[in-house]
Design goal:
- The complex is a heterodimer of chains A (387) and B (159).
- Chain A has 387 residues and is mainly alpha-helical.
- In chain A, 65% of the residues lie in helices and 1% in strands.
- Chain A has helices at 4-14, 21-55, 71-81, 92-110, 127-148, 152-183, 188-193, 210-226, 238-241, 252-275, 292-313, 319-346, 351-372, and strands at residues 198-199, 202-203.
- Chain A has a two-stranded antiparallel sheet.
- In chain A, strand 1 and strand 2 form a beta hairpin.
- The longest helix of chain A is centred in the N-terminal third of the chain and has 35 residues, at 21-55.
- Chain B is mostly helical.
- Helix content of chain B is 77%, strand content 0%.
- Chain B has helices at 2-15, 19-39, 43-68, 83-102, 105-108, 119-128, 131-158.
- In chain B, helix 1 runs antiparallel to helix 2 (19-39).
- The radius of gyration of chain B is 20 Å and the shape is globular.
- Classes of the chains: A mainly alpha (387), B mainly alpha (159).
- Chain A binds chain B through residues 91, 93-94, 124-126, 129-130, 132-137, 139-140, 143-144, 147, 155, 159, 162, 166, 169, 184-186, and chain B through 18, 20-21, 24, 27, 43-44, 47-48, 50-51, 54-56, 58-59, 62-63, 66, 71, 118-120.
Chain lengths: 387, 159
């Protein structure tokens, strides 16, 4: 049951003559990813709108289908049949290519995430490096979108988006480096395998270590910022700059940008699950009979729920707050985290290890928090009423 | 075919009128180079090429264009008046380099099967045999970082 997809693929690949086997194998892996994740994207759009609606004390969409569940179908039809408006002075080739340059690297990034036992589409020696490399390539698409629209506000949104993305790439990669240090390999499959043991009842996931916990939180925050997701969605904030760099896009291209953004969110969540949450391992040893891909997608849905929750709860960060947060808080925290991970690796197992590493992580957190909030004296709340 | 694509985008990067199109062609050239590295089974170098060149250097050039607003096509002539000398110099350099490479030891030996280089080995070598270049690069990057901060700081003080 666990290996049903792998067995199916092996059977299909064995049924064709030899020289076509690599091609069919690659096509099947790619096809599986291309089918699953846009489907998950459609489900996420409805979950998000309903979830945000409930957080904001209203119903989400509830007209299309029972409880609004067919809303993604309506959205898809709308996106496909809308007129594709391109500004007259826009740079047509760049305008057309920008959504593609966003979506293609994100699909590439999804290929290295292991979704089940033996189910990583690409098992490379430098899997994590590949992931970050193609993540870096998505920033070009944001620039292309903003520039080709020949719109001052699009350009402004694109500049802010790129600045945000490159600022948060450094904490993202540094917080992932701690896991790489602990495992000793860049391959995502090896990283998941290294988290397979159980200490008695608890699983040996990296999130349950002090440096892993801090690293996971830092990774998720940086991942939220990388995929331009609230509370970091200033580049495309709706009431601030209309749609920012995506203003001049309509119809299917806008849907492609949307798809690319959500798939980026899935890819970052998938990598977070791989690095910190134990990939496709079950949380308790006795639950190991449930197939591995079910655990992976359950964890992915859990992280998506956290993303939606954070979006509905926190207000949007201003640009200078956002950049200050990245460079002044997250970067020193990730460096302290790396120190803690190194100390963890070389100390003998026991209570002392926990105390030392927890202090190494908590102390910079408290000190940085005190230092960075020092300027503003937040006094008692004062109400002013309009008279 | 990848080589043809790389060369074509390099030529396009230099000869396109629109600067932003040129930057995108340059990014295409970098991607072509990364593909060549990956074909040679040098995974780490290939991915590092994508991460550093496309993810950072191309963005740097893009920012330079954005901040200096020189995206409009310049009215200068595309080919300078001394282009023949330029071609001559380029051909001479190419001939020299290819002659040196072809007559060196690396090509004249028999072709052995390529070694499988893992990231582990690269890391090992970086910290044992090449530790001095690693530290020097670290110093260089620190100097660049401090320089960037100083430039940004001075701009604030003048205001």
């Amino acid at each position: 049951m666990d290996q049903i997809f792998v067995t199916l693929k092996c059977w299909l690949v064995a049924a064709v003559p030899d020289q076509w086997q690599p091609l069919l194998s690659a096509a099947l892996s790619v096809g599986a990813i291309v089918v699953t994740f846009p489907l998950l994207f459609a489900i996420t759009t409805i979950l998000e709108r309903k979830g945000l609606g409930r957080i904001q004390n209203r119903y989400g969409p509830n007209r299309v289908g029972p409880y609004g569940l067919l809303q993604p179908v309506a959205d898809g039809l709308k996106a496909l049949t809308k007129e594709d408006v391109v500004p007259h002075t826009a740079d047509k080739v760049m305008h057309f290519l920008a959504p593609l340059v966003l979506v293609v690297p994100v699909f590439l990034a999804l290929a290295v995430v292991p979704m089940g036992r033996n189910m990583a589409a690409l098992d490379m020696d430098g899997g994590v490096l590949f992931f970050f490399a193609v993540g870096a390539a998505t920033e070009l698409s944001v620039f292309m979108a903003g520039w080709s629209s020949r719109n001052k506000y699009s350009l402004l949104g694109a500049m802010r988006a790129i600045a945000q993305m490159i600022s948060y790439e450094v904490p993202l990669i540094l917080s992932a480096v701690t896991v790489i240090m602990a495992v000793g390999s860049l391959s995502t499959v090896r990283i998941v395998e290294a988290q397979g043991g159980y200490w008695g009842v608890l699983p040996q996931w990296y999130v349950l270590t002090p440096w892993g916990f801090a690293g996971f939180i830092l990774f998720m925050i940086a991942g939220t910022a990388e995929s331009n997701r609230s509370p970091f969605d200033l580049p495309e904030g709706e009431s601030e700059i209309i749609a920012g760099c995506y203003t001049e896009y309509s119809g299917f291209k806008f849907a492609l940008f949307f798809l690319g953004e959500y798939l980026g969110m899935f890819a970052i969540s998938g990598l977070g699950i791989t690095l910190f949450l134990g990939g496709w391992h079950a949380p308790l040893a006795c639950l190991g009979w449930i197939p591995s891909y079910v655990w992976f997608f359950a964890k992915l849905l859990g992280l998506i729920a956290v993303f939606i929750w954070v979006r509905g709860t926190l207000p949007r960060l201003r640009l200078d707050q956002l950049m200050g947060f990245a460079w002044k808080f997250m970067l020193p925290m990730t460096l302290a985290n790396m120190l803690a991970a190194g100390v963890w690796r070389f100390m003998p197992a026991g209570a002392a290890r926990w105390i030392v590493c927890a202090t190494l992580v908590a102390a910079p957190y408290v000190m940085l928090g005190r230092a960075l909030a020092g300027r503003k004296r937040l006094g008692k709340r004062v109400y002013r009423y309009a008279d | 075919m990848i080589a043809v694509l790389t060369l074509a985008s390099a030529v396009a990067a230099m000869s396109l009128r629109n600067l932003v199109h040129g930057v995108l062609a340059l990014a295409c050239t970098f991607a072509g180079l990364a593909a060549v590295y990956l074909l040679l089974d040098a995974q780490f170098v290939g991915f590092a090429q994508i991460l550093v060149y496309i993810g950072a250097v191309a963005i740097l050039i893009v920012f330079a264009i954005l901040l200096t607003r020189s995206g409009e096509a310049s009215p200068q002539r595309r080919f300078s008046s001394t282009w023949a000398i330029g071609v001559g110099i380029a051909v001479t350099v190419f001939g020299l380099l290819s002659g040196l490479i072809l007559s060196s030891r690396a090509v004249s030996q028999e072709i052995r099967p390529p070694p499988v280089v893992t990231v582990h080995q690269i890391g090992d070598q970086l910290l044992t045999k090449f530790i001095l270049p690693l530290e020097v690069i670290g110093l260089l990057l620190t100097a660049a970082l401090i320089g960037a901060v100083i430039i940004a700081m001075h701009e604030k003080e003048r205001e």
